[in-house]
Recover the amino acids of this structure.
């Protein structure tokens, strides 16, 4: 027994400094394509290469709908003029749901994780949130097996016909106020399964979705950001403020900054 | 048994009713319906051929069923790859075939799937229906994989009946059932289990799966291989690279493509990186299920380390978008691979230390030793695959038996255990992780010798009509992807045979006659993926 203790101590603290400081380790995020000004020819080529309608052109700018991105990297590898890429991870956005929770839920929430037909990757990334690197307990986020104790329903996967009924029942079993966080391209748009006759085009077809986290799969830090957005401790990502990652945001003032950013938006 | 012995044996036993033909390096045994069950039974039970799966295709005027068996082959001889295909046909109007499940129990679920998807009936099968299409939610007569099925038409699906109850088997006084799922526990994939009991021990455990059925095979029809590759990678993404690779192997086989040598080496490297990561994840889940908190944390660190290594090397933590038809979508530099290997070595060292400590933690071992035992014969009969089978003494690995990607050039061992309990399955995971790093070391060394030769990692294919099987030893076991293309190079039939499908079939063996509280632990030692099973 003692050697477990000794070894645990010897391993030291591995936990990320996020959200207080940005995480800088390599390989924590698959990144997303970056919109902006591109030559017309390149925009057309990028739009042709993308299998999931991520890109569109508006006023000579390339507009990126990252909710559709399935990380096939076809706009990057093998492309003559690859798209610019951003390696951040704060991807949580607010969908027109019921808005934020309010102060009572800011410090601690219980999360019910519902797999509604994902490929295993998003679910595995949610599981990583409990490992020492991300350790979401420190932020007051707890996973609960039962919807009766849950404040937030975290849904992954393109909702299949067989699970749709269960998903609705789980949602109905949750006490109010409750929020839904949809994680991953499949949960947002159906991803590669959108055309399947037994899949929906995202959780929003079934439930009111409050926060959306894109990615295929969404990396753990992006999911964490989505949860922080859901409780109002972080500002949601928006294209206007995409470039500089948010500076230091300690708990209290961070909330104020986030709230003011949201009211402006 | 080599192919000449097989031919002699087939001709001696069933003269005029069955014959061996060689189609390239494949061996095809054609036979009449009457002979099929016995022939399959002898291949499987006497002649030591594993059952790969059943592939059903609806031709323009006939049913084409293909039973795939595979033996050890003759390594280094391209004439005999060890595969034995048993094709059987019947006119479309005649939907009845003999069931082989009586002799080949591994084919049980395959026949049930074919019945659900195509409406083909297997005479003699004890339990058809209510499999992929849940009976309470689908109308009778829906056969989604038939060509006549219109997926765009109004839904044939109805809201599941709220009064649905699972079928009970144990009817003794005092017997009770514990339904588990589909939503259960913390972070789990949906599956329903009916645990029947008369006290402490589970007597029967009946899984109900396919809550995550996304009809991937139907979705693939009519699409180009380039698009379907996206599906192949994403239907079970914890082993995305292996499935993408199996699909590419199949298409490349149809086109007769030669994948450039550098791409082959990199594919081996990435496939082993994925195996290492997946095994670390499986080990973490076992530690978590036994409630050993420090071990759980330490294994979690190692899994995340490997995810980050993958992310740093390739850009994606689950190796999406790497494998491409005809090679890889991008080159990886020797230095980047060497760096990733160095990180893997470091992780492996910690993994070995973790194993050393787990081996002396009696509270941990008590939960795994002598629990969830699957004997060798049962593992064979159920056609279990991968680390689960190898822990029970069924040591067959496609990398060794039917080498693809020049795995024959690599030195590695296929670890095997005989106990078949939860602890044996854990030991196999650790042993295979060591072998994976050993293969990666050889791959990096091979890259450096190839360095001056050729940086080409991709060959473009000319798609044409044909059908082929692609096979890969995925982290969870053997996977087979059957692809048929038409003249335009579009997919006509795509069938995925996954290791989780085989292992879910046999999972109940590990929980029956053992106590309730062992159930989650056994579930974690089986390392099952619902996504991979449901497709």
């Amino acid at each position: 027994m003692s050697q477990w203790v000794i070894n645990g101590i010897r391993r030291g603290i591995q936990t990320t400094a996020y959200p207080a400081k940005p995480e800088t380790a390599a390989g924590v995020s698959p990144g997303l394509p970056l919109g902006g000004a591109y030559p017309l020819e390149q925009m057309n080529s990028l739009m042709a290469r993308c299998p999931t309608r991520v890109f569109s052109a508006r006023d000579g700018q390339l507009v990126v709908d990252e909710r559709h991105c399935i990380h096939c990297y076809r706009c990057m590898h093998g492309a003559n003029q690859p798209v610019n890429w951003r390696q951040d991870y704060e991807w949580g956005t607010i969908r027109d749901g019921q808005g934020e929770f309010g102060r009572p839920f800011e410090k601690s929430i219980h999360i019910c994780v519902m797999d509604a037909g994902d490929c295993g990757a998003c679910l595995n990334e949610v599981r990583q949130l409990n490992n020492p690197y991300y350790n979401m307990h420190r932020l007051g986020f707890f996973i609960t097996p039962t919807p009766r104790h849950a404040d937030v329903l975290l849904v992954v996967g393109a909702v299949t016909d067989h699970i749709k009924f269960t998903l609705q029942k789980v949602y109905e079993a949750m006490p109010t106020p409750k929020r839904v966080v949809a994680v991953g391209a499949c949960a947002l748009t159906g991803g590669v399964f959108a055309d399947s006759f037994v899949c929906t085009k995202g959780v929003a077809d079934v439930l009111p979705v409050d926060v959306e986290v894109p990615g295929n799969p969404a990396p753990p830090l992006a999911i964490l950001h989505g949860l922080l957005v859901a409780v109002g401790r972080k500002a949601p990502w928006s294209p206007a403020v995409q470039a500089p990652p948010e500076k230091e945001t300690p708990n209290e003032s961070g909330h104020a900054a986030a709230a003011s950013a949201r009211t402006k938006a | 048994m080599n192919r000449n012995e097989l031919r002699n044996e087939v001709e001696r036993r069933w003269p005029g009713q069955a014959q061996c033909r060689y189609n390239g390096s494949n061996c095809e045994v054609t036979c009449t319906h009457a002979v099929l069950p016995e022939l399959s039974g002898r291949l499987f039970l006497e002649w030591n051929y594993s059952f790969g799966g059943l592939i059903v295709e609806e031709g323009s005027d006939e049913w084409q069923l293909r039973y795939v068996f595979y033996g050890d082959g003759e390594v280094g001889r391209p004439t005999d790859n060890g595969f034995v295909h048993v094709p059987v046909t019947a006119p479309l109007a005649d939907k009845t075939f003999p069931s082989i499940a009586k002799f080949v129990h591994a084919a049980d679920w395959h026949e049930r799937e074919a019945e659900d998807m195509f409406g083909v009936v297997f005479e003699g099968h004890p339990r058809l229906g209510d499999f992929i299409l849940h009976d309470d939610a689908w109308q009778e007569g829906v056969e989604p994989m038939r060509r006549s099925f219109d997926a765009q038409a109004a839904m044939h699906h109805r809201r599941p009946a709220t009064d649905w109850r699972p079928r009970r088997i144990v009817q003794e006084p005092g017997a009770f059932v514990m339904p588990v799922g589909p939503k259960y526990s913390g972070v789990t994939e949906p599956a329903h289990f009916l645990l029947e009991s008369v006290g402490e021990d589970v007597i029967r455990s009946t899984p109900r799966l396919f809550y995550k059925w996304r009809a991937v095979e139907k979705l693939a029809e009519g699409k180009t291989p380039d698009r379907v590759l996206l599906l192949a990678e994403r239907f079970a993404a914890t082993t995305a690279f292996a499935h993408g690779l199996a699909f590419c192997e199949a298409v490349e086989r149809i086109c007769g493509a030669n994948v450039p040598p550098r791409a082959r080496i990199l594919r081996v490297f990435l496939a082993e990186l994925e195996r290492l990561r997946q095994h670390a994840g499986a080990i973490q889940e076992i530690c978590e299920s036994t409630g050993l908190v420090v071990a759980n944390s330490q294994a979690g660190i190692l899994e995340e380390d490997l995810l980050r290594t993958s992310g740093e090397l390739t850009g994606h933590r689950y190796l999406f978008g790497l494998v491409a038809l005809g090679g890889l979508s991008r080159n990886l530099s020797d230095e980047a691979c060497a760096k990733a290997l160095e990180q893997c070595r470091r992780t492996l060292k910690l993994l070995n230390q973790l194993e050393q400590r787990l081996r002396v933690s009696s509270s941990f071992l008590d939960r795994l030793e002598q629990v969830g035992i699957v004997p060798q014969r049962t593992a064979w009969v159920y056609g279990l695959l991968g680390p689960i089978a190898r822990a029970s003494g069924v040591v067959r690995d496609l990398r060794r038996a039917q080498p693809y990607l020049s795995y024959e050039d690599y030195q590695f061992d296929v670890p095997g255990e005989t106990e078949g309990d939860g602890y044996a399955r854990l030991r196999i995971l650790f042993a295979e992780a060591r072998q994976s790093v050993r293969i990666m070391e050889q791959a990096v060394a091979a890259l450096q010798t190839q360095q001056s030769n050729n940086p080409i990692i991709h060959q473009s294919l000319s798609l044409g009509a044909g059908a082929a099987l692609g096979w890969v030893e995925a982290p969870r076991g053997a996977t087979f992807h059957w692809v048929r293309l038409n003249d335009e190079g579009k997919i006509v039939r795509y069938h995925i045979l996954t290791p989780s499908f085989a292992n879910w079939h046999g999972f109940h063996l590990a929980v029956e006659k053992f106590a309730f509280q062992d159930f989650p632990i056994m579930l974690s030692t089986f390392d099952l993926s619902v996504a991979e099973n449901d497709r």
Summary: The longest strand of chain B covers residues 50-58. Residues 26 and 83 of chain B are 6 Å apart (CA to CA).
